[in-house]
Amino acid sequence: MASAAELVSIKAKINGMLRLPAAKKLLQLNSNTCERAYEAYIFALCCQATQEASGKVVLTGVQSGPNPHKVVFRGAPGSMASKAQDFVYANCTINSKTFEIHVDVEYQGTSGSLHEVDVSFCDRGHAEQVRDSSGTPKASRSKLIIAIECKYYEKAPGVSVGRTFVGLLDDCGAMRLRLFASNLPSTKLQQYLAGSKRPKPFLGLNPIDMKAEDRFRNVVQQELRQWAQAV
Amino acid sequence: MVVSEADAQELVGEILQALKDLDCRDLLGAVEETRRAGVVEGVQSSEVLTRSKVGTSRRRPLSEGELLRLLIVMLHERLVVVPQLGLAVRSKLQTHMQPSTEPLDIVWSAEPSFLPGDAAVAYEFDVNDLLPQGWVELEDLVAQVGKALQINLEERNG
């Protein structure tokens, strides 16, 4: 068992660490900030995967067009058609297929309900119609190509978060790929998502695990290559 | 070092007090939620349970040692993983910009029309907020704490 001296030492180490200015700033971030940062990270991985599938990726501001001088992500879910701010999306092309990658936009499910999809791949023609008409994109096959649920958790995620996404997907049409990504691994969530009709889980996906990043990008890349070959 | 339940309780108390002093409401909320959730584990099957045909999973409270481990994992996510998220977003998106040598300004912003008063501020931040000055030394410090408490931060499973 730890000696009294060891206990004093570890307490001092912990207190010293938590009182560093950098630690204070990070600990005081609200959970929405961490969640949104994680979604942007998954978006960046998707852009990388698209490039690795021999695709072209151009970051585009909804107001300013290609290569905005400032990249603006949504701080809260919103409409794809909104031009209230210069929100960014990725304008992509693989072979003759054109699509866009968005963060935190709402889609209309088959029931008519609106669902926020954390990271989504949307057919470009459909996205342009949405912006032109100030409408809402539809979560149906050929329009919503890939949907990714992103969860940043301070503790290992429970089964309920997987259940919520499965429920959302039930209201969407078939799509090529459905993924669930979280920063922390979870045995129970992994087991829940093991079912054949459940989204593919990527639990423990974060920048300090290079292998997890590689696996994720490979799955997205393979799916895009296959889709781009289809007539 | 191996910590007893009493020592773990003391360390948990120190960490929670530090978080309270720093007014880390979201983290403290996550700790409370974790305590309430407890741990779900399988119960050893026995003839009685089998004959009763009931489920063999039960929820129990966290031990102090388990709570300490979870707290260290939480600190690792905040102090190590969050800055790495900021770094990854900036470096990965830089390659898609033209010209790619220009430093990338990345912000998050909410539409104020859906939020009352100045509530939109809570949803706004800059990538530099994820990378405060001095963040680099935190990874080593967290690793030292994890090692001292024999907590494997590479297997942060729940």
Helix-strand category of chain A: alpha+beta
Helical segment count of chain B: 5
What is the residue-mean pLDDT of chain B, rounded to a whole number? 86
Q: How much helix is in the residues of chain B?
A: 40-55%
- Strand proportion of chain B: 5-15%
Largest sheet of chain A: 8 strands, mixed
Broad structural category of chain B: mainly alpha
Order of helices and strands of chain B: HHEHEHEEH
Strands of the largest sheet of chain A, in order across it?
2-1-4-5-6-7-8-9
CA radius of gyration of chain A is: 20 Å
Spans of chain A of 5+ residues with little confidence (pLDDT < 50)?
none
Average pLDDT number of chain A: 90
Uncertain runs of chain B with pLDDT below 50, 5 residues or more? Answer: none
Read across the widest sheet of chain B, the strand sequence of neighbours is 1-2
Number of strands of chain B: 4
Amino-to-carboxy terminus distance of chain B: 22 Å
Overall geometric form of chain A = globular
Largest β-sheet summary of chain B? 2 strands, antiparallel
Overview of the structural elements:
By secondary structure, chain A is an alpha+beta fold. Chain A has seven helices and nine strands. Chain A has an eight-stranded mixed beta sheet with strand order 2-1-4-5-6-7-8-9, sandwiched between helices. In chain A, helix 3 packs across helix 7 (210-229). The longest helix of chain A has 22 residues, at 31-52. Chain A is globular and about 70 Å long. The termini of chain A are far apart. Chain B is mostly helical and 158 residues long. Chain B is 51% helix and 9% strand. Chain B is built from five helices and four strands. In chain B, the strands form two sheets. Chain B has a two-stranded antiparallel ribbon with strand order 1-2. The two termini of chain B are 22 Å apart. The interface between A and B is large, with 75 and 83 residues.
